[in-house]
Design goal:
The protein is mainly α and 227 residues long. It folds into two domains: 174 residues, Tetracycline Repressor, domain 2, CATH 1.10.357; 36 residues, no CATH class. Helices cover 70% and strands 0% of the residues. Helix 7 packs across helix 8. The longest helix is centred in the last third of the chain and has 26 residues. The chain starts with a helix and ends with a helix. The model has no long low-confidence stretch (mean pLDDT 85).
Length: 227
């Protein structure tokens, strides 16, 4: 399993196969079937190992508000997933019944939102939505690594920004007045490292959750208002 994880880290999970592992160990592929049923079973086992120990509650304090715990949980998730480069691609490819780490994370997040006052089903929906947003964010951060492409240097990025800005400036001004006026800023933001916007991402999610909780309370009070 250690060699499978090493191969996946260096070459990507597509490079991990029973035939490749058997060749490296000097055995027949059939010899590996005593340990795993097929490649998917191998992927599932790798996922469970990589995610072992994932804990979004690190640093929680009793005095923290629910929004502070949400922020800390998101930071923990990002830091721990960053420390496990294979975790995201393996999680996407996983077909098992979910590792213990997954259930532990859901339990922790559900406790936070229930304590905040969200209804149980609403809390579950929101956890699903937030997890989708964070997974998409992390995939965006790693698109070069997952695609196997080399990172652009500062000069190449500057050329891309200039090209993007020129494309915007060439648009019909009567149809795209806002894009033309924002050409420089848009090119800079769009081609910057997405990790620059982590704080904004956390703010957007947290403030959105706060507003949804307020709206839930407003609807509840409205439903009990006298006719």
């Amino acid at each position: 399993m250690a060699r499978a994880l090493e191969l996946g880290s260096v070459e990507g999970i597509d490079a991990v196969s029973l035939r490749r592992l058997a060749s490296e160990f000097g055995v027949t592929p059939m010899a590996l079937y005593r340990h795993v049923r097929d490649k998917q079973d191998l992927i599932n086992a790798m996922t469970e190992i990589v995610l072992e120990g994932l804990d979004v509650t690190v640093g929680f304090e009793p005095s923290m508000s629910w929004t502070q715990r949400v922020r800390r949980a998101m930071l923990n998730y990002k830091e721990q997933m960053d420390a496990r480069p294979l975790a995201l691609p393996l999680s996407i490819a996983y077909t098992g019944e979910n590792p213990v780490a997954f259930w532990r994370m859901l339990e922790a997040l559900l406790a936070i939102l229930l304590d905040a006052g969200f209804a149980r089903r609403q809390a579950i929906v929101l956890i699903r939505v937030v997890s989708n947003l964070l997974a998409g964010y992390l995939l965006l951060l790693r698109q070069d690594d997952l695609g196997g492409s080399e990172r652009l240097d500062d000069r190449q990025l500057d050329l891309l920004r200039r090209r993007m800005e020129l494309v915007q400036l060439s648009l019909p001004p009567d149809e795209y007045p806002n894009l033309i006026a924002s050409a420089g800023d848009l090119a800079d933001v769009w081609l910057s490292d997405p990790d620059r916007w982590w704080r904004d991402t956390v703010d957007l999610i947290t403030f959105g959750l706060e507003r949804m909780l307020e709206r839930t309370g407003e609807v509840s009070r409205g439903s009990h208002a006298p006719a």
